[in-house]
Amino acid sequence: xxxxxxxxxxxxxxxxxxxxxxxxxxxxxxxxxxxxxxxxxxxxxxxxxxxxxxxxxxxxxxxxxxxxxxxxxxxxxxxxxxxxxxxxxxxxxxxxxxxxxxxxxxxxxxxxxxxxxxxxxxxxxxxxxxxxxxxxxxxxxxxxxxxxxxxxxxxxxxxxxxxxxxxxxxxxxxxxxxxxxxxxxxxxxxxxxxxxxxx
Length: 199
Fold this sequence. Notes:
Blueprint: H1 2-21, H2 28-35, H3 41-44, E1 48-52, E2 58-62, E3 68-71, E4 80-86, H4 90-101, H5 106-119, E5 129-136, E6 141-142, E7 147-148, E8 152-158, H6 164-167, E9 180-182, E10 190-193
Parallel strand pairs: 1-3
Antiparallel strand pairs: 1-2, 3-4, 4-5, 5-8, 6-7, 8-10, 9-10
Helix pairs in contact: 4-5
């Protein structure tokens, strides 16, 4: 009898612990509000927004009519980070999400997309396409309004196969905020613009 009670106690404790660890899924309205913080104001009203349902599955929370796609914050990750990008990047971004869902490592994801881009199976942007990433700390996030104080915005401009020679950009920045070219000469080539963080 004593052993049975101990086992019951352990089972209840494990169940409660599992419930405590389940990430909080915010309402679609709040997820949308926060996701749009990454987009330029002129694109926010008609952007498509991806977010999460009650089970934590990625889904379209709002359809869009312009060229901007936004991603809500991932409830499974620490901190707050949302992103918006030109829809020309969607094949590249969607493929990355699919590979992550398959359990692929970051290295595997990179290699697979590289192979598919080189073969033409994965369609890459035919013109510069921008990704905006807005991030901040959990303690600065208001879950009731979707507002994020002291957020940090950085910019990524994808130009597949660009090189320092074709762009005039260095392969590393000389100071914070200076544009530079990351992964030059590859399908992942992109201009990084990371402003200096405020104290």
